[in-house]
Amino acid sequence: MARLSDLDFYQSPWLSLPDLAGRAVRVTISEVRVEEMKQRDGTKARKVVLSFNGKKKRLICNVSQA
Question: H or E stretch including 44?
Fold first, then answer.
């Protein structure tokens, strides 16, 4: 039986550590954008966001990754 969290419309559009399941993955960056993101405290901050060829999920970069 499928869990609700496994359904596509409950999936986050953002890449996270559990998505990689401990595997190394080689991807090609298709786009780099700066997007305004709402922070947990309600403020907004500009973040670098990466998109990858053939992948649905995107990566929000922190200062070290950017």
Answer: strand 44-52
Percent of the chain whose predicted confidence (pLDDT) is above 90: 65
Distance (Å, whole) CA 5 – CA 7? 6
Count Cβ atoms within 10 A of the Cβ of residue 41 and give its class: 0-12 exposed, 13-18 middle, 19 or more buried. exposed
Q: Count Cα atoms within 13 angstroms, Cβ side, for 22.
A: 0
SS3 of residue 45 by DSSP: strand
Average pLDDT of the residues of the chain: 89
Structure tokens belonging to residue 26: 């080689």
